[in-house]
Backbone:
């Protein structure tokens, strides 16, 4: 389906509320309904706002303060969504299994790509840290490498699990 053919997923009433985005407060919204003649005749902005709030100055329905803030919040979240750079799978997950718990602790570092996989014809799969460029050897029969520790985790889900933690040292 082409982009132009994509149906709008929000009802027309929500799309019509885009007109509320320029107004930060309900008073700003009411001020937009007030005309110069109202100020000339009433001689008070407070009185003009009361007339506008009662619905005498709008062609359609005037929103109450509660409706204004609720509708503005909905359209603001649609037009300006909060974007998370990545969603952690472990958030809200059941972490009863020791392996899942250990992976949840390390998930952020793995998701942002701190380790780069390498293939070596002699050693097989290796990892290199992007910050200090140290090599990590995930071979159970070999030393894991400088600044790297190996931890065995017992889990009923898997026969054998080993986790390698690499610590980047600060320059002194």
Residues:
């Amino acid at each position: 389906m082409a982009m132009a053919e994509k149906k709008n997923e929000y009802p027309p009433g929500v799309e019509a509320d885009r007109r509320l985005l320029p107004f930060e407060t309900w008073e700003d919204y009411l001020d937009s309904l007030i005309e110069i003649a109202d100020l000339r005749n009433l001689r008070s902005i407070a009185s003009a706002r009361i007339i506008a709030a009662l619905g005498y100055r709008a062609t359609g329905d005037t929103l109450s303060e509660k409706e204004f803030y609720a509708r503005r919040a909905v359209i603001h979240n649609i037009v300006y969504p909060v974007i998370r750079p990545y969603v952690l799978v472990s958030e809200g997950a059941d972490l009863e299994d020791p392996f899942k718990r250990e992976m949840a602790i390390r998930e952020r570092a793995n998701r942002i790509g701190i380790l780069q996989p390498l293939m070596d014809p002699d050693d097989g799969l290796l990892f290199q840290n992007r910050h200090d460029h140290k090599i990590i050897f995930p071979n159970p029969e070999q030393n894991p490498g400088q600044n790297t520790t190996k931890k065995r985790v017992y889990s009923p889900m898997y026969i054998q699990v080993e986790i390698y933690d690499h610590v980047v040292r600060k320059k002194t």
About this structure: The chain has six helices and five strands. Confidence is low (pLDDT under 50) at residues 1-7. The chain has two domains: 10-79, 98-166.
